[in-house]
């Protein structure tokens, strides 16, 4: 008898023999210890072959089977099956679809502690404060109708397209409540920064039946919570990305809040999209999915238009509250108090403090200044390891690379020409913080960006301060723009819209529209109407017309026309193959060779673009080139990608990385 054992590493399964005493107990999904190299390793049995004659196992037999003598499984680690079958099937789908080793999928799905022998621990209480009481809301007609539709089918995809403040969270909760007894639900949220309120509301509605699965859990907590989920002891899991792999075996519903968010896609290792894995899991388990958004991805809206998804639209906010007035502030002509703050915005913020209302300000760049510039020679500091300009951070007095995390000390003289006139140009959140302190001393506020939220659950603390009215204003990167429900916020503002508009990517207009609409959506959610200020040097950009009028459909129609013309998604699928090289010379030489080999591959209806240098040419000392495959048929596209990778298999000095459905091409 043979067992294929999968480890959480970048590899397929390895084959072992099963000794007689384990044969009756070993199952697919069992966790086992096996000899590996000169030591032992923990893995999961993914296939079993009960017929001793059969030479090899069908799926993922691994390279070891060929001729060497197989080693026996050492021991079984649990009495019961460790990983349910539905999860194994899902991992299989994921590794096929994303063209990645099954072991990597396992690594993303199961906490690593289960493979390293760590012990379970007792979960701590996250909140010191009292849990909020659940108030029984009377559903609006829009909410009722949405639920009738959602409850009319136990399969399929429901796109809930509801404007900001239309009460989508309540729809999610009732949809979970409507599940048959014993059915479980997964709620995916795009980033941990915006989970606080979702958790509170679900806790209020479901108590301890809710588990919050996040990166801040300790190893012990992670083990305990994962086991509770696997044993069916909880009903709801809320979490980011990897919660889509929650080991429920009686799942009834997956909810993906803000389905358009880029953070659902993982950028390294297994490059999966949690939204798309959710759709696949729902299909495999024959259950339903709710995709919720005020600004659906073009892909989702397109699918709804074509009848692939059920479509539920809510155009009104709760209590018919108006959407905020959006004002585009033309920074080329507007009076300014500082380089980054218009007098208009500063006055409005000042007035808001007087009126005891709250405000929210977004600048999508952390740090103090993005240009540390010598005014004599124009030299700026680049990261030595990446082709990226370093960002000056004032609190640490360092020049930081936001790609690789390395940093330099700033020099008093220009390192190029010895010039003395060094200027910090442009602004990040730290600089705006300083300016606000100076211009509006009476303002009490917090900065929320990746630098201030390093500590576990610090987002939650900041959000609580805003909720409890301990501060007047929240300043931060895009994590302040999304999801939050602060009823007293009447002003929301974008300091500089321009960076978002000008990314070299076919989705940049879509992302900008979504981000600004989300930000606008934070204002005027309570009794007082809201106002949104968008500062820009490009006030005539077409995106603003649609943002100003809250016109999703108009934006969609314009954008989808362009996508069609250029045959970008949703009219095609993309696979991006990224090559990494140690030196620029190698990159040039080897890509010429790659190019020659790839040119010989000809497939009908598949376009191969490149290889060309990636827009961000160097990251962490790797020189990056890429190749983009475009086609309508996902399977054919994968086949071509596989063929290309196969042709390059024996090439030296190149690292090959595959990104299926890339969401940016940087
Ligand atoms: P969305 O996610 O659509 O932006 P939320 O779910 O955050 O909106 O709801 C906005 C606000 O309206 C929340 O404060 C919520 O408690 C409140 N709300 C939701 N449904 C109702 C209802 N039926 N009656 C009164 N208030 C509601
Ligand atoms: Zn770097």
Describe the structure.
This protein has 666 residues and is α/β, with parallel strands linked by helices. It has 4 domains: 2-84 and 95-116, PriA, 3(prime) DNA-binding domain (GIY-YIG endonuclease, 3-Layer(aba) Sandwich), CATH 3.40.1440.60; 141-318, Rossmann fold (3-Layer(aba) Sandwich), CATH 3.40.50.300; 321-368 and 427-559, Rossmann fold, CATH 3.40.50; 573-660, Ribosomal protein S10 (Alpha-Beta Plaits, 2-Layer Sandwich), CATH 3.30.70.600. Helices cover 28% and strands 23% of the residues. The protein contains 18 helices and 27 strands. The protein has a 7-stranded parallel beta sheet with strand order 8-9-7-10-11-6-12, with helices on both faces. A 6-stranded parallel beta sheet has the order 13-23-22-14-21-20, sandwiched between helices. Helix 1 crosses helix 2 (102-109), helix 1 (85-97) packs across helix 8 (274-284) and helix 4 crosses helix 5 (168-177). The longest helix has 16 residues, at 584-599. It is globular and about 80 Å long. The chain binds adenosine-5'-diphosphate and zinc ion (ZN). Zinc ion (ZN) is lined by residues 383, 385-386, 388, 401, 403-404, 406.
